[in-house]
Amino acid sequence: MHPYQHDLSIVKQCVVDLLDERNITDYGGHTELRPVIPTMIYLGGIAKNIDLTLTNRENTKFRMLLGRTPIHGDCIVDPKGSYLCGKPEAMGLNKGMTT
Questions:
Q1: Is 44 helix (H, G, I), strand (E, B) or coil?
Q2: N or C terminus of the chain with fewer C-beta within 10 Å?
Q3: pTM (predicted TM-score)
């Protein structure tokens, strides 16, 4: 995968167990069979195990969409707010970070 949008020079190889494959219908009505993997998300002070479906979002504005199911009961969405948990740079999630 290319972890940084618009930068194909950095490649990360990831290996994870496949949980399932599911047919997912996007907002345009197109259905795609997608792999499902287990992963951990961190939102503010919340850490949560979720099932994540994978698709190629290389040419989209947002590299990941988080739906209502994974955050149900833990988060409230404020559509007017931005960076309510802090900017990625302030959390050490910039390109200079090493893993």
A1: coil
A2: C
A3: 0.74
